[in-house]
Amino acid sequence: MESLKSKWSSLPLRRFFILTVFFSMGIVVLLSALIISFCISFRHWLLPDSNAVYLTIEKTSPDGVISTQTYLLKYGKDLEQLPTLFYKEDGVLNYEDISKVRYNVQKIENTFDKLSPKRKFAYQICGVLMIIAPAILAFVGIILCGLYFYRKKLKKPLELLSCATIQIAKQNLDFELIYNCNDEMGALCDSFEKMRNALYENNKVMWEMLEERQLIQTSVAHDLRNPIAIIEGYTEYLDSGLKNGTISYEKIGHIVNNLNMAAKRLEQYTESVRLLNQSEETPLHQKTVLAKELINNVTQDFMILAEQNNIILQVTQDLSDEKMQIDVSILYRILENIINNALRFVEKQIDIHFMLSKSVLSITIIDDGKGFPLEVLKQKKKLIWTSGKNEHMGIGLAVSRLLCKKHGGSLELSNTTAGACVKINLIV
Predict the structure, then answer these.
(1) Residue 389 φ then ψ, to 5°
(2) Which of 298, 325, 422 is nearest to 365 (CA)?
(3) Residues 404, 426: contact at Cβ < 8 Å?
(4) Do residue 222 and residue 352 come from a single domain?
(5) Neighbour tally for 339: CB within 10 Å
(6) Three-class SS of residue 417?
(7) Residue 60's Cα: distance from chain center in Å?
(8) What is the mean pLDDT of each successive set of 10 residues along the chain, which is 428 residues long?
(9) Residue 242: is it exposed, middle or buried by C-beta count within 10 angstroms (0-12/13-18/19+)?
(10) Are 331 and 362 in contact (CB under 8 A)?
(11) How big is the CA angle at 273 (ends 267 and 279), to the nearest 5 degrees?
(12) In the β-sheet with 312-318, what is the strand arrangement from edge to edge?
């Protein structure tokens, strides 16, 4: 029973509507036949079919003898064709059509005129009912069929879509539209849910980008505070010392040197912001390439770079001859930023592992250095970091993270027993 009910509810709209109309019209026809049959039976009860017509036929013979005969006929039937009168004259059997003989209706029983007023009214009502009842039932059947179709197939999905539209109008995308049905409305709800999810993901990416931009501004403002404070302090000290004549040339040289270092750091921070903005504006140009061939070509350049720095670069791969859609320049920039950052802290060896699975290119880079500082791992969303010595770091990782997101992927930082670990995932 439950299986039949589920199949009935999962029928396509067109088939469900046709079957509903067919079923409704069947009920209408059945009820109409019952009402008409009842009305006919009731009319027969009011005025039975046994109404009798008595005909008296009168004939005058040539000798003046008048003879009469009486016939009992059925009403409305035998009057259409009157019987033939047979008689004998001089021993010969003769006949003539009774229509040529004078006759009259002597007695009619159970006629409509003899019914009582109440029975006449009931008789007429039955006649009218036999005509209008099918029309009324058909009209009611159409309305009920429409209401049933709306309630069963349209009401719930339309209410869900209406509520979902209101939520979207309120800029709320954090909900889920669920309508488990395999008909056209189910497909419409599924499409709407896909649209909502796409909008949600797009907005999520947009808010993440805005958050990242805020983080960039916060990081840059924080990093700029120290060199600016140093410059302001030294300028005030110089101004005061020169006015009082209490500052030596040796001290001035030391201050100038520190001011020069602070200015270089400001320049470095400015360049960092430029690189980050450039990464955000970088267009995505994907092309189809052989995965194994591309990785072999890309890693050759980094092999030479590692040799120049007396570092061992170990490359392993789990790739086949399958193709992938990727922006080669973005892949190269990501690897360049991360490997250059690793070369700053590595001791002897860097290991890179490539794996392609289900349209995801995973790249794991591990060096045998000291690993990432705890403050970096605790603040994974921060894009620009400074060490305890105010040494600028992390810009390569920040740029790489933005490029990974642009390619639909991610960048994760962690530490292993061997050292720092960077895991890259790119949608290809």
Answers:
(1) -95, 15
(2) 422
(3) yes
(4) no
(5) 23
(6) coil
(7) 98
(8) 65 82 90 91 76 61 72 50 49 47 52 76 88 90 88 85 86 82 82 85 74 65 70 76 71 76 72 66 78 84 82 86 84 84 85 88 89 70 49 63 82 85 88
(9) exposed
(10) no
(11) 135
(12) 312-318, 349-357, 360-367, 420-427, 410-415
Contact 356, 318 (CB under 8 A): yes
Domain extent for 98: 52-109
What's the DSSP call for residue 64? Answer: S
Written as one letter, the residue type at 247 is I
* Of 93, 109, 125, the domain-final residue: 109
Considering the domain architecture, whether residues 142 and 67 belong to the same structural domain is answered as no
Identify whether 184 is part of a domain: yes
How far, in Å, CA of 177 to CA of 194, rounded?
A: 9
* Residues 260 and 395 both lie in one domain: no
CA–CA distances in Å: residue 42 to residues 119, 130, 136, 155, 248: 10, 11, 20, 43, 132
Report yes or no on 168 lying in a domain: no
Structure tokens at 230: 């140093």
Its pTM stands at 0.47
Give the count of domains, the chain: 4
- From the number of C-beta atoms within 10 Å of its C-beta (0-12, 13-18, 19+), residue 31 rates as middle
**CA 205/CA 209 separation, integer angstroms:** 6
Q: Are residues 378 and 413 in the same domain?
A: yes
Helix (H) or strand (E) holding 60: strand 52-60
Q: What does DSSP assign to residue 284?
A: P
Q: What CA–CA distances, in Å, run from 270 to 213, 214, 281, 380, 418?
A: 15, 16, 17, 22, 34
334 and 286 both lie in a single domain: yes
Here the contacts of 203-208 (C-beta below 8 Å, separation 24 or greater) are 203/173, 205/405, 208/405
Is 131 a member of any domain? yes
Tokens of 381: 């969303």
Claim to verify: residue 307 and residue 420 sit in the same structural domain: yes
Residue-level pLDDT at 364: 92
| Structural tokens at position 92 | 């010969």
Structure tokens at 27: 């009920």
| 24 and 88 within one domain | no
Same domain, 240 and 191: yes
Q: Which of the listed residues 281, 304, 323 is the one where a domain comes to its end?
A: 281
227: in domain: yes
